[in-house]
Amino acid sequence: MSQTSSSLVGLNVGGSIFLTSRDTLSKDPESMLAHMFSEALPAAYRDKDGNFVIDRDGGTFKYILNYLRDGSCVLPLTYHTRAELLREADYYQVKHIICIQSMCSLAACLPRR
């Protein structure tokens, strides 16, 4: 898969820099990211290096971006990080991650046999 430089997008999420494509950001058409990058954003949303600025947690964003890249969601081990991921998935409106998190939480509550 070849990508032209115009399809690549630099993101500055909470100070963490990510490089991805508009296609990746649009994989979940109902997500906030798909809506954000479906049209040109004003220059005010860019940092000094030209990256789009999103004022959210960059450490948790990697889970969101990896899900959009390949459809898999490797959940973090700690409860705290999972809770952060759920909050960020809700913010970005990535519904599938919210469902995965909910199922895992539900499974953790079920009695073991």
Task: List the topology elements.
Blueprint: E1 8-13, E2 16-21, H1 22-25, H2 32-36, E3 52-54, H3 58-70, H4 79-92, H5 95-109
Parallel strand pairs: 1-3
Antiparallel strand pairs: 1-2
Helix pairs in contact: 3-4, 4-5
Structure, explained:
The protein has 113 residues and is α+β, with helices and mostly antiparallel strands. The chain has five helices and three strands. The protein has a single domain (5-109), classed as Potassium Channel Kv1.1, Chain A, CATH 3.30.710.10. The protein has helices spanning 22-25, 32-36, 58-70, 79-92, 95-109, and strands at residues 8-13, 16-21, 52-54. It has a three-stranded mixed sheet. Helix 4 runs antiparallel to helix 5 (95-109). The termini are far apart. The model is unreliable at 106-113 (pLDDT under 50).
Query: What is the third-level CATH name, the topology?
Result: Potassium Channel Kv1.1, Chain A
- Helicity range of the residues? 40-55%
Oligomer: single chain
Could you say what the CATH architecture is? 2-Layer Sandwich
End-to-end CA span: 46 Å
Overall mean pLDDT = 80
Q: State the CATH superfamily name.
A: Potassium Channel Kv1.1, Chain A
Number of spatially distinct domains: 1
Form type:
globular
* Major sheet: 3 strands, mixed
The CATH top-level class label: Alpha Beta
Widest β-sheet, arrangement of strands: 2-1-3
Rg over CA atoms: 15 Å
Coarse structural class: alpha+beta
- With helices defined by DSSP (H or I, 4 residues minimum), what is the helix count? 5
Q: What percent strand?
A: 5-15%
Question: How many β-strand stretches?
Answer: 3
> Low-confidence parts, pLDDT < 50 over ≥5 residues?
106-113
Order of helices and strands: EEHHEHHH
